Each structure stands twice: as structure tokens, then as C-alpha cells.
Amino acid sequence: WDTPFNNQLTKSITLYRGANLNGEQIATYTDLSTHPDEYCSFQAFTSCSRNREFAETFPNTSVLFIMHVKWAFTVNLSPISQYPEEAEELITPGVCFSVKRVEYDMNKKKHLISLELCQRFY
Predict the structure, then answer these.
(1) How much is the pLDDT for 1?
(2) N or C end: fewer C-beta atoms under 10 angstroms in the chain?
(3) Domain with 91 in it: what CATH number?
(4) pLDDT in tens, 48-105
(5) EC number(s) for this protein (predicted)?
(6) Where in the sequence is the domain holding 78, given as residue range(s)?
């Protein structure tokens, strides 16, 4: 991927994204977690944060994605952001992920969906 911001793969970081998913969507991720060798991919640019506490502050979210990046094309937007405290990272289209675990946090009343991101080259 050709980017003016970053020409190297991002390695070994954890990213977070709050989202509002319905029961059917959560069930799909739960099913995918039983097939750890199957991969899906991000179809669009996806914004997330390197700061879990910040990602958990988004209102009306039923899910927190916890994304463990093995290696993938991402872009750190903090240096050019008006809100650098958001620690925003942009995942580029085509980055693949596998669903490792889906669990429900009773205290936070959210599903925690753990993904492993891995750039796949065909």
C-alpha cells in the first residue's frame, strides 16, 4: 500500500474500537471465533485508538474490539490530528483479521471481541 504517512508494516501493538452491533452481528463474530484459521478483511479505512480508555468512552456502543496487530498496514494519525490525545490509528483496507475470542463483560455491559490482525500476502 502506497501511503505518504507510512511505508512500513506496523508490528506488535494493540488497537481498540468501540462499535454498536446487534445480536445477529455479535453471533457472527462468536461463530467466527470457533474457526481461528479463517480470516476476514477490513473493506474500508477503519479508525481506532491505541488508547483503550479513550475507545471505551464512545457512547452507545455494545462492543469493544480489541485488536492485536501482528503485522499490518496502519497509519498513526496523531502527528497530524487536531485531537492527538485520541491516539488515532487508521487501519487500511484489505488488512485481514481472525476472531480469537468473544466474551461479555458484566461490569462494562459490553461484548469484548478480540481480533488478531495480520497482513496477508497472496
Answers:
(1) 43
(2) C
(3) 3.90.176.10
(4) 999 999 999 989 999 999 999 887 788 889 999 999 999 999 998 888 999 999 999 9
(5) 2.4.2.31
(6) 10-118
- The answer to the question of residue 45 being in a domain is yes
Q: Is 2 a domain residue? A: no
Residue 31 falls inside a structural domain:
yes
Amino acid letter at 49?
Answer: S
Q: How is residue 88 written as a grid cell?
A: 488515532
Give, in order, the Cα–Cα distances in Å from 98 to each of 29, 35, 75, 83, 118: 10, 8, 20, 30, 8
The structure's pTM equals 0.87
Report the number of distinct structural domains present in the chain: 1
Q: Is residue 1 part of a domain?
A: no
